[in-house]
Structure formats: C-alpha cells, structure tokens
Predict the structure.
Amino acid sequence: MKLYRLLSAATVATLAVSLSSCASSQRDSASSGNTTAASPEASSSAAPSSDAGSSEAPSASSSASSDGGAGDGTFIFGSAGAPSMFDPLYATDGQTFIVTRQMTEGLLGFKPGTTESEPALAESWTSTPDGLSWTFKIRQGVTFSDGEKLDAEAVCYNIERMYTQTGAGATQAQYWSDTLGGFKDQKAEDGTAIPSLYKSCSASDPATVVIDLNSFTSKFPSILGLPAFSIQSPKALKQYNANDVKAEGDSFSYPEYALKHPTGTGPFTFTKYDSANQTVELTRNENYWGEKAKSKTLIFKIIADEAARKQEFDAGTIDGYDTPSSGDWDALTAAGAQVLVRPAFNILYLGFNPTNNPALKDLKVRQALSYALNRPDFVSSQLPNGAKVALNFYPDTIEGWTPDVEKYEYDPAKAKALLKEAGQEALTVNFWWPTEVTRPYMPNPSAVFQAFKADLEAVGVKVNETSKPWNGGYLDGVEAQSADLFLLGWTGDYATPDNFIGTFFTKAKNRFGTADYPWGTTLSNELIAADAEADTPKRVAMYADIDKKLMSDYLPALPISHSPPALVVAGNVKGMVASPLTDEHFSTVYKTS
Amino acid sequence: MLRFTVRRLGQMVLVLFILSLLLFMWLRALPGGLASSICGERCTPEKVANLNKVLGLDQPILVQYGKFLGRAAQGNFGTSAKVIPGKPALDVFLERFPATIELAFGALLFAIVIGIPLGYLAAQRKGGVFDNLGVIGTLVGIAVPVFFLAYLLKYIFAVKMGWLPPSGRQDPTMNATRVTGFFFLDGLLTREWDAALDSLRHLILPSIALGTIPLAVIFRITRSSVLDVLGEDYVRTAQAKGLATQVIRRRHVLRNALLPVVTTIGLQTGGLLAGAVLTETVFAYPGIGAALAQSFREKDYPVLQVVILAAAATYVIINLIVDLSYALIDPRIRTR
C-alpha cells in the first residue's frame, strides 16, 4: 500500500515537472519593445511586464506615478462594458469610444469639458461663404504610432475610406450615414441613389486638405471631432484589411485591424485586449506630437455591474470609474473621492404616437397630457443634482435654444379642462417603459414611469402599462409604433440642433408617427432647411422658430429633463476633466503620491 | 458492443440536432432582436430593416437555420456581438469555460473540505451546542441569497478589510503568461508564483459565495448519513469486538456514510452553473455564467447558442459514458 502511494506521488510529481517544463514564463522575453499592436492572442502568450517576481499583486494605488510629470504610473479606470472593437469608424458605443479616443484623433477636437470645437490634427480651417468648400491646414510633424507620417493625403485617404464603405461596413459606419447621408453609389430599396452631403476630398499640398460638400450643413466641420471621423494610419488600414467587415449569421465579424492593430496619432497606443481578464491596456505614445501622457500605462478594467465598479473603487483596486449611481455621489465625495459631473448634454422625453390611439392626433389631448405631468417635482425628487426641466428638445448651450416657448407648467386643472374640450375625459393610453436598462438621461426608468402614471391618473387618464426589456422588445416595439406614450431620450454627440431635433423628426416616418399628422412633412422640410442655412443668425432664428412650433403647434413629444451623468476618480487623481460629450482625455490624468 | 456504441452516438447527434433546432427557433421567437440591440436609440425603422437584411435575419427561419447548420458544420458558430465583440462564439466559450471550471472547483473544494468534517463532527456530537450551531448555520447558508452573500463578503473582506480583491480573475497589472486558460494552473506551470497567488486570491470570495449552498447541503447529508451509520449493527459489532475508535470511524463509519455524500456532491456539481450566473455577475468574474446572462440580456445569439449547446453536449456525453460503462458492466443493457 505504501509502495502504491509512493508510486502515485512520484507519477504526479513527474507529470507536474513535465508540464511546467512545457510552459515557461514569457514575461522576460516580452518585456522590451512590445508596446504596440499586440493582439488578444499575443496577450495570452506574451505580455510586457514590470513586476515579474513580485510576490504581491500591485494595487492600483501602489502602481501610480507620483507627480504631474510624464511618470511611469499606471492608471486603472473601471469601464462599464467591453469595447466592440477598436476601429472607431464602425462603433457607436461609449465603451469603444472611451478607449479609441485615447489612441486616435480627428482633424478637430473638442475643448476639454465643453462641446466647442478646437484644432486637433488640423491647425486651422476656413470655408467659402456658402460653406460648401472647407480648407484645413494639417498639423506638421505628426506621425502615426506605426511611424508613418500624417499628411494631407493620409487625411483624404481616411475620408474617402469612410465614404466608400459598402455592405456590412456601411451598416456599421453609422456616424457617417447619420451625419452625412449616403455612401458612394449607395442605393435605397427602391433603387434610387441615397444622397450624400459629402462631395470630395483633395490634397492640394502635404499640409492642405480641401473637403467639398454637396450642400451646406450646420454640423460641419464640428462632426470631424467625433471619434468616428478619426484619422488612422493608411498603411495600417491597408495592411490589416480595415474595411473587411463581414455579416455572418447573427453578427458582424471585424478585420484584424479593428481587433488587433488600431493605429492613430493619439497620446496612447494599443498594447493588448486581454478578454479573458476583461482588461484593455494602452501605453504612452512616446512620439506623440503634443504633451506626452502623464501616465505610462492606462488600463480599462471592464466591470459591467455598477455596484461591482463601486466596490472595486472602494477597495482601491481601480483609480476611477464610469457612471457612478447618483445615489452614491454624496457618499463618494464624503469618502474623499472626486465626483466629476458631466454637464448635462442629453434629453429625456415622453413620446406621443397617434398610430394606435387616434385621440392623440388632437393637439389639445397632447397638451393636456403635458400639463398633467409634474416635471419639476420629478426632476427634484428623482434626478441627480444639476438636472433641469427641459424647455426644448436640446440643452440651452446649443444655438437656437429659446426660453420663449410654451412651457407646460404643471397644471392638472388645465389638463382636465383641455381633455374635456377635446371630448376625451375617459382617455385611455398605452404607456410603455423599459426594464433592464439605465441611460444617462434616465437613471431609473421605473421611477419615471411611476411618477408620470400617477400624474396622468390624477387628471382622469386611464393608463395601461407595458414594460419590456430594453433589448427584449422595448426598442423594437417603440420603433414599430406600438406604444401610445413611451420614454426615450438621447445623448448629444455635437452641439447643433440637428443632432437632436434633426435626428428625431427630419424623417417623417419615425417613432413619433409624425407622418400621421398633417404637419409631419412640413416639420421635416423646416428641419432640412434650417440645417442647410449657411447664414448663422438666420439659421439660429429658424431653429428658434422650429422650437416654438414644436412646443406649441406640433408637440410630437414632451421634453422632460436634462440630467447630468458623472464619473468618479480617487482623491489623489489630478487632470481629469469631465466632458459633456464623454470625451475625457486620460493623457492629462495622473496620480499624486 | 460496437452496435450499441454506434446507436448511442447516433442518438446523441440526434439529441443535439433537435436541441439546436429548438434553441434556434426559441431564441428568434423572443421579443427584441439583434438589430435594435446594435443601434439602440439610434434605431430607425430603415436602419433596423437594413441591419436585418445584411445579417440575413429577414429570411425565413428555416433558411436561417440551414445556413447556421452549414456554418456550424465548418466549426463556425458565429461571432460574438456583445460578450467579447468580434471574437468567434466558440472561442468565447473556450476562453470563458476554464474560468468557470476554476470557480466551480474552488466552490466544491470549499464545500467538501468544510462540509464533510463539520457534518461528521456534528453527528458525533448530536444534540450538542456544536451540532445545533451547525444545523442553524447551514439553514442560514441555504436561505441567504447568493447575490446578497456575495455583496456582503465583498464588502467585509475586500472593501473594509482589504484582504482580498473584490472582483475579476487577476490583477490587470500582473501581465501573467497564459497557457491553459486556467489562471492558477498557468501561474504554477510557468512558475509565475505571484500570478498564481493572485488568481487564487481572486478565487476565494466567489468560491465561498458559490460554495455556500453546496456546503450546507453536504453538511446536512453527511450529518444524517453518519448518524444512520452510527446506529448500524456492524458498527456496534465492531465496537463490541474492541476495535479502536479511530479504525471504526475510518473504516466503518466514514466510508459507508460517504456514499450518499458522494452522490450529493455529484448533484450539487450540476447546480453550480446556475449559481455561477449570479456569482460571476456580482464578482465581475469572466466565466460562462456571466457570459450566459449577458448574451441573453443583450441578444448575443451566437454566444448563447454555443454555451447552451456545449452545456447540453457535455451532459449528453457524460450520459453516453455512463451508458457505455453500464453496458460494459452489465451486458444485458446492450440488448434493451
């Protein structure tokens, strides 16, 4: 028996030694020079290291740099979800952009903490008076992280690459189609060409790019600051088949470029995406044209659950995290953390749709429902500090916003009177609200619904409740116009009315069913005309006029609130500026000792 | 024996085929779709229609299923859209599976190492303080929801005490070498002891959270089983023969009492995946349970299909092995 045990132990020991000799640590072999364009596969086999041999896992705080200089610190940020991939052209989600914004840049950027455009890869720009031709002076001495030089040709290669997307790529490059319209030779279902605002891009010399448009649009050139319009290395784009997006079964597959080799001009470069450990690691770009990043390593740790992010932060294993619950703001601040509130750049609205409820076609009914809702009480009791009742469908920092609109102050008596006038004293509405979701403009959908349901019932409206999961029928149902009333909203990408009301109502076939109203097409035309007006004062007046009509004559929905989201960093973190566009730059962020 | 094996294998393929068909139909019958999950608030009816067209989701369901089978036959189960976007669904499963195995192993180890000795000691001291405390403790263990226990453990041992990491599988600054996907094992194999220790520290709290219910069940089964055996005639006979207490406990009591315990452990193992969904979500632990929950919530059909089919295949294969071993032991089974 003893011999048997001895033999067993010997066998196990031999096996262990054999296995361990097959697998050796690759820390040392990977520790030099491997700072860019590593892959998920590479991350599973080789990764740079600075801490081999340490017996204790370094905590977030112990790995921090000590001062404001370009130190060797590591900054770990708790991200709310996994990035889709790393080519911003094909992304629409904040989890992807928060990473790619650190690696890539556009011709324009946004001033930290604002929605104002500022020079980035273009040092300056001018346009013809009609706003159809834009000349950009390209910053000189800039290189991509693969060593390739940035010049006018590289810029035009990128712009043309965006314009010539086809098939699956065209469905994924949503920011292009949302802002500039059709792609090259793109046709609608009926075979007609989908028009594009973009005409051409030419490089007259290495430092000059001219972009011509087919018609003026108010959003140009500010949209060039969006991550989707980032300028990436033409060499890398070609080398790693960046356009090779495929639709396969129930999903899209992305090319090697988007998964492993994003190559921009930003202050950080891609190191690895360790999907098994849910981390994305970036390294400081030592050849960055501007001020070098203050942390050497930037890690995004993906923690989908908000409570789990907070506990990681409380435990000191991450240095900051995204979208803390507003209920935790005070406690976090009291504990010494910095809650950085992003200026509210969003809108929550209550949509009306008359498709299944003809009573809603009557303006008086929609007005009655608007007077019935106690929005000030909802905003003060349910939303975080800094939230405001919305007067228009976009924030007051955007041109055209006017306080001179119908305000629908809480007035249940007036609501009842209007319902009586409309002959709808026994009105029944089918009110939809989403579950399994929180949005920056709607932290708690259930609370919104409960508050407004009570308000509507108080004026005699019967409310039939329909709650569905966000991705489990809610969005589809709202788009299919199944709801009479519904809760939805929008977070702005850039500061023009077109980004808000243009997106909502320009196409008459929309979730509000504006095509069913006699004024649906008129509203569309008014929005198209305002966006195409090159004369700024005139355009501002046009948008102000539309705002007034939206609130008094049309009322396809009722704007509810603008609610500020936040991010939080530890007390010893410096340099983080919260952005209304979630355009936070981590290159300026560092930890003091 | 060969005919029996072939017949069983044929049945297995048929089971998986029927399951894949049902799963495919069922998922697509659910409200909501991938298109709206992709475009969110940016959706318009045109966009949704366009996405559905490009993805082929506007085609008849049987045509979609046929294409799925065609791709699956080539080992292509689609690409993850949400769990690990861009990664083949099968690779997502293969990457996440070791994490869940590690966690389940840790949970079972915790349950067995604590549960059996405690159950045995409680039985030995039946009616005493230790026994009563054990019974009450296990009742509490079963009654407390896993997610609550998980948050409590994290709050005490990670946030307040700072003894253990609150979530994840490994410190992101560790830069560990990956070999098998089992982080702890990889640390041992590559002699990166810090990485092994770190992954072990990350396993402790989720293992305790996941292992609490199995621990309580194993404790109670061990206790009652030992009590049963202690009353058996052969134990009394052994005592009358003057055998040493140690020998009686080891050879006669424990061995016989452990039979139902082993069966219970087997049953509990099957239930661990269900528990892993909650535990992994709370601990942001990237395993199969978290992938299952996320893929269902966000309509990541390729991952959902692969995970469910792989779980079913594992179950069917284990059944097949059991059937074959029965057939080897008892030849009469082959003719049934």
Chain A touches chain B through 94 residues (CB under 8 Å). The radius of gyration of chain A is 27 Å.
